[in-house]
Please model this.
Amino acid sequence: MTRVYARIADRTIADEYFAVSEKVEALYDAPRQLPADAEGTEMAKLRRKMHRRMLGNGYCARPVEMDCHFESICESCTFFVTTIEFRPTFERQRDDAAAKGQVTREQIFDGLLSRLDGEASWRPHSS
Model:
């Protein structure tokens, strides 16, 4: 806009203006990532907390960027057996996965909860 409304008469000032303009324009094309050392301790702590995976007896602290072939492996194993008293834990794990957008984990816990509900409905009622 400045170029439209003002004419830069001094060549040195004009050169500096255009050099800065090019640098500013280059920023728009640069990837929008902070340098690795720009993350402070509180931000790092928050990021780690957000990406923890809730397990039945603790948390997995594996960085979210790393793939894991064992994530929820026990819960998806055909030999995994559970009972209705673990329903609240599975609900918390499912809700934790849903809040973090971990769709596959959420589906695993939805399946476990459905299985528990199905087994509970097939139990003979004692009178």
